[in-house]
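Bench log, entry 3. Co-assembly request; chain sequences pasted below exactly as received.
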Amino acid sequence: MTENRFFNRSEFIGILLLAVFLVVVLPLTLDVFRLNLVAKYLTYAFVALGLVICWGYGGILSLGQGVFFGLGGYCMAMFLKLEASSVENTKIQSTPGIPDFMDWNQITALPLFWKPFHSLTFTIAAIILVPGIFALIIGTAMFKRRVGGTYFAIITQAVAAILTILIVGQQGYTGGINGMTDLRTLKGWDIRPDHAKIVLYFFEVGCLFACIMIAQFVRHSKLGRILVAMREKEDRVRFSGYSVANFKIFAFCIAAVFAAIGGAMFALNVGFMSPSFVGIVPSIEMVIYTAVGGRLSILGAIYGTLLVNFAKTSLSETFPELWLFGLGGLFIAVVLAFPNGLAGIWSDYVQPRIDRLISSRKPKPEGWTDSSVADGAPAE
Amino acid sequence: MLVGHQPKEFLLAVEGLTVSFDGFKAVNDLSFYVDENEIRVIIGPNGAGKTTVLDLICGKTKATSGSIQFRGKELTRMKENEIVKTGVGRKFQNPSIYDDLTVFENLEISYPRGRSVFGALTFTRDAAVRDRVHEVAEMIFLKDKLNMSADLLSHGQKQWLEIGMLLIQDPDLLMLDEPVAGMSVSERAKTAELLNRIIKNRSVLVIEHDMKFVEDIAHKVTVLHQGQILSEGTMEKVQNDPKVIEVYLGH
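Structure output for the full assembly:
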């Protein structure tokens, strides 16, 4: 058997099932409003996917993924906002041709750092590079100095708080607490009507699967195994000749870029971006999605994100005050009872039953297999 | 060509090595030399600074002063992973292996290729890697356990696995911190046999308390006491040194 660098057989079936679920089942059973809600949930799935690599495999808990989600989202929103602020759309302003919130804040010319966002190519590059480079700087500053664990988590929280304060404070440049609203078109194509929402949903699912493939590739590479090794015995990896800091920086950067893509999808699908998706609370929520889905499972994190968000929407519609307690309780319950989340429940309780069902029809030879972390030595 | 007396080249030359932790000198003005293909055992009472010496050589602890020359390269100024690349391998006191990975994967990670981020992403498990892993696994008595998760190994097997992980790196200087601690008698004998086989073409620096084991393997013994050398020489010489008997062997 040749080695596949992306997935083994059971993972392939899992990815296929997820594809059928997202591409066929949901669009056929949900109306456009609900489908757009799923699109919103899936933007967080990008973040959860990144956290699986960074936190699940690498053991680096980041409580500031909202920062990267926000950076990606704001880059996209700046492009869309500029397009919505054409001279004829804004002719009632005292300075036509600049975003409305700038006009309200007595800014009379487009700030320099906004100008390149007239270009879609630049915007796409910025969505990847701005959060990527920011993560590289934070990662280098922290990991080269061997800051890790709780301290790292606290610092990411601080960064999330700082960025929120910065965005809210610089109202004239960022739209402040309201964020960037009233995003209308992408290269002249209206993103608001129902048919556009459906197209954007499928585009997002496509991007999600591209990210899943990247995550699978990383996981199955030696780098994925080094991340697991590092999580357990950092010194052993260091004294086997690896620069541990560089591997941590890589994991943190890839998680940041995934989160940023999710943020950009959010701006496109939901039609606005605001600091309420950047700060401490949303960042922690994103960690909860990953924990509930299973921090060691790429697909589990996606199901976890969908499930928690469905629960959030339906529960917060019924019990608006109690929802946050429910979320906190869920997190505690998962961590205490099922540290590997939904994916852990699946591989510990459901999978063995299915295997038994199959093997009762076809006896299989005894053999030890690792279901959750790695798939062992090559078949020979 | 120059003919005549030339200074002898040591593999490892430790000179005037001192490290102090908040004023406490764990290693104090220590100097010793290790030859090519020599097995050197460091013994000494608890707190003598034995493990600290290994920590200093492999870069885990930074020296306060002094120098460590390995094949003419100054190790005190290098990073841990660079020291590994110059050919120094270190085994820790407690078996330090990756429980969540299989025996094969544990060994594969130590294979000296693809150690950069990009190298690790593009690393392929080719025939050379597989052959070397199988070869080492056979040496460390774990040939039939390659696909087993490492946390299912016994304590002794974990120690062997870590020795195997060092072997696959093929270091010129192998440092072992209490390799037979916690092993059964038969495991101990097998480990001695293993060590005697793997010392070919390399030097080994071992910390050990088990005197029988030390006698079996040591070419030369260094006795540390309070961060300084108390005695050095053959096992026989050291065992008959009254100072050594007083502080260490007599107990």
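The beta strands of chain A are 185-186, 189-190. Chain A is about 70% helix and 0% strand.
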